[in-house]
From TrEMBL:
Residues 90-110 are annotated as: Disordered. PANTHER family: DISKS LARGE HOMOLOG 5. It comes from the Eukaryota. It comes from Characodon lateralis. It holds the Pfam family CARD. Residues 1-92 form the CARD domain. InterPro entries: CARD (IPR001315), DEATH-like_dom_sf (IPR011029), MAGUK_Signaling_Regulators (IPR053004). This is CARD domain-containing protein.
Length: 110
């Protein structure tokens, strides 16, 4: 993966862990696109008990693949979590989102 893509994923890492509530939705889209194999899915299912663990392992897996799958991840996020996708690229990895409103949960309330 290109260094600039790794850097962006590093910046967004915590937001992704907190905001992707159903990792299997994203994983399924990445399998359909050919980014992940069934073996990758098996590894994720066997080694991760929570959705956040799956997201963490998935991001590491994508960063360590020979090809740059950043755009594939973006497409999967756009399909599965359009509000999250928008926030990541307009907010440079800001806090977790309230998916009912599409707004950051980190907003200070006075």
């Amino acid at each position: 993966m290109e260094p600039k893509h790794k850097e962006l994923l590093d910046q967004c890492h915590q937001n992704l862990l907190e905001s992707i509530t159903d990792a299997d939705r994203v994983i399924e889209l990445l399998i359909v696109s050919g980014t992940l194999s069934q073996l990758d899915r098996f590894e994720l299912d066997q080694n991760c008990s929570s959705s956040a663990e799956k997201v963490d392992h998935l991001l590491k897996m994508l960063m360590n693949k020979e090809s740059d799958h950043f755009l594939d991840l973006c497409v999967a996020l756009e399909k599965a979590y359009p509000d999250l996708y928008t926030a990541l690229f307009s907010n440079n990895g800001g806090g977790p989102l309230d998916h009912s409103t599409g707004k950051s949960l980190d907003t200070n309330i006075s």
